[in-house]
Amino acid sequence: MLDSAQLAALAAVHRRGSFDLAAAELHVTPSAISQRIKALEEVAGTLLIRRGAPCQATDTGLRLIRHHDEVALLERTLSTDLPGLSTGPATLRIAVNADSLATWVIPALSATQGLLFDLVIDDQDVSQDWLRRGEVVAAITSHPGPLQGCDTIPLGALRYRATASPAYMARWFAGGVTAKTLSQAPALTFSDKDRLQEHWVTRQTGGSAKRAGFSSHRMASSQAFVDACLHGLGWGLNPEPLVAAHLVTGALVELAPDTPLDVALHWQFTRLAAPALGPVTKAIRHEAAQTLQQKKTGAA
């Protein structure tokens, strides 16, 4: 039988990156955390944490952390039928892309009760990897799957608009939006994983544009993208919900009219956690239906 306190210590060390921070989260001493990890490693017969800065779980450690998370969620489901067993809110760890978080995910999370959320912010193209490694129990991802042991629900597509300020357009695109002017005009990039601007440029120019084909500012913030466009620092692909009002007032304009880029999103989660995730899944689907682009079905 695995010790729940030892498993909680393992998860906290991996997620907080140090024994001191794990101790602070669990309200015990760093020595107690160390003893719990050592005892669990003796039971498992293998190394579970690679000590360093930050500390990280081994593959076996990640498997045990996933077990810990799934048990916590299963116990939460049981406590709804047997309230006397409740030990407080369970923590739900989800991987979500920054633009979804900035536009529609928060209302969904706020519609649920009795859960604490530990959000991992990463690009929609790689968020599934967190689920595959067992570091989260659910993810908003651009990958439809299949992923072993998981279910996938299509949510719709987050629509992006290539936008810039009128002054920026006058400075950099007075002669039109072409492969040449795009290669010269500073763009905005969220991170090394962000390919949205590249995809849009490739589609517009009909070529295989590479990242080196245009200069770019880097800023890992959805709101900073909007602010940078408003102030003429660069152009970028912004989620339509964040820039719709600015497009109406003319504070921002599209680089090329009516050329949105739609990114399909999916809600992916482990089957074992599905019962506990039920209310969250319902709220996620509801908010996605209000905000994301949905496929139109033809008449029968």
Secondary-structure blueprint:
Elements: H1 4-16, H2 19-26, H3 30-44, E1 49-50, E2 56-57, H4 59-81, E3 90-96, H5 98-110, E4 115-121, H6 127-132, E5 138-141, E6 150-164, H7 166-172, H8 179-184, E7 187-189, H9 196-205, E8 216-218, H10 222-230, E9 236-239, H11 240-249, E10 253-254, E11 261-270, H12 274-291
Parallel strand pairs: 3-4, 3-5, 7-8
Antiparallel strand pairs: 1-2, 5-11, 6-9, 6-10, 6-11
Helix pairs in contact: 1-2, 1-3, 1-4, 2-3, 5-12
Protein model, in words:
The strands form 3 sheets. Strands 3, 4, 5, 6, 9, 10 and 11 form a 7-stranded mixed β-sheet that branches. A two-stranded antiparallel ribbon has the order 1-2. Strands 7-8 form a two-stranded parallel ribbon. Among the domains are: 1-88, Winged helix-like DNA-binding domain superfamily/Winged helix DNA-binding domain (Arc Repressor Mutant, subunit A), CATH 1.10.10.10; 158-262, 3-Layer(aba) Sandwich (D-Maltodextrin-Binding Protein, domain 2), CATH 3.40.190. The chain has 300 residues and is of the alpha/beta class. The termini are far apart. The model is unreliable at 208-212 (pLDDT under 50). The longest helix has 23 residues, at 59-81. 46% of the residues lie in helices and 20% in strands.
